Amino acid sequence: MKTTNATHQIQTIAQIQAVLANERSLGRSIGFVPTMGALHEGHLSLIEQARKDHDVVVVSIFVNPLQFGEGEDFETYPRDIHKDQETCQEAGVDYVFYPSVEEMYPDVASVELKVVQGVDVLCGKSRPGHFDGMATVVLKLFHIIQPDTAYFGQKDAQQVAVVKQMVKTLAVPVSIHACPTVRESDGLAKSSRNVYLTAEERKQAPMLYQSLLDVKPLALSGAQRDELISFVRDRISTISSGEIDYVDVLSYPKLEAEASLSGTIIIALAYQFSRARLIDHILIEV
Q: What residues bind ATP, as annotated (predicted)?
């Protein structure tokens, strides 16, 4: 990765558009990593891939209020802009774009983006409006940055599916690159919310991914959707703290429930610990 040049830190839309227009005029390609900050190794894997693929790497850091519902953790979502900027510098990022809420949403919106496919399942089922807010900010960032490629973590599989479908539907000239989930040594998916786990919850959290690994042979043997859901629920119900939010099995990326499984399927779960809601999944070809 490039680590020699200074990372430029930009807070306004006008300035980031100006500097990137100049980069494009010089024939340089742009890789873009949209984030909400609290950067960890998962984000670094996206930055590293963008660094390999493109001349210029842009990271946005913006905690988007539109994708947080009532009672969710917008106010307490982990924020450490100085640490994130240092991380970007070390990773060879060229530009960090970290606008304020007022910069991104200066007026009452005259247009609302509504996602109508793949949002009434998984995280979208219990978070109405979440993917409308996510799609709105991602589309706005695409217009601002105008990247050649945008990089997302496959860990947020529903988000990746929604973004890919949005780009296809609206003919947005951006390639979407989904990078593999980055995990701790015990299998727990890296997440900004892992810091909220108690010591005991952290010990039990790897059971989420292990349950998905355990169900894979059953899925490959031709088991039906309900059987797979029951298997995973039984496995993670042994966790002594917290509760299951959902376990589901759907086609991917359309995210449709089908009794007879074929092609690519996603087996996904969400689990609510005391202060952290964790998600995980596996994709399987059946």
A: 36-43, 153-156, 182, 190-193
Is 38 annotated for ligand binding?
A: yes
**How many CA atoms are closer than 13 Å to the CA of 74, on its beta-carbon side?**
13
State how far the alpha carbon of 241 is from the alpha carbons of 38, 99, 127, 214, 233, in Å: 25, 37, 22, 21, 14
> Does 43 belong to an annotated binding site?
yes
Each residue of 101-138: b (16+ CB within 10 Å) or e? Answer: eeebbeeeeeeebebeebbebbbbeebebbbbbbbbbb
Active-site residues, by number, are: 43
Task: Consult the annotation and say whether 218 binds a ligand.
Answer: no
Name the residue with tokens 């009672």. 71
- Tell me the one-letter amino acid at 268: A
pLDDT tens track for 212-252: 999 999 999 999 999 999 999 999 999 999 999 999 999 99
Residues of the chain with CATH 3.30.1300.10: 192-285
Fold of 8-179: Rossmann fold (3.40.50)
192-285 folds as Pantoate--beta-alanine Ligase; Chain: A,domain 2 (3.30.1300)
Query: In whole angstroms, how far apart are CA 242 and each of 14, 121, 204, 245?
Result: 45, 21, 10, 9
Taking a C-beta distance cutoff of 8 angstroms, is the pair 241, 200 a contact? yes
pTM: 0.87
Range(s) within the chain of domains with CATH label 3.40.50.620: 8-179
CA distance 73 to 247: 22
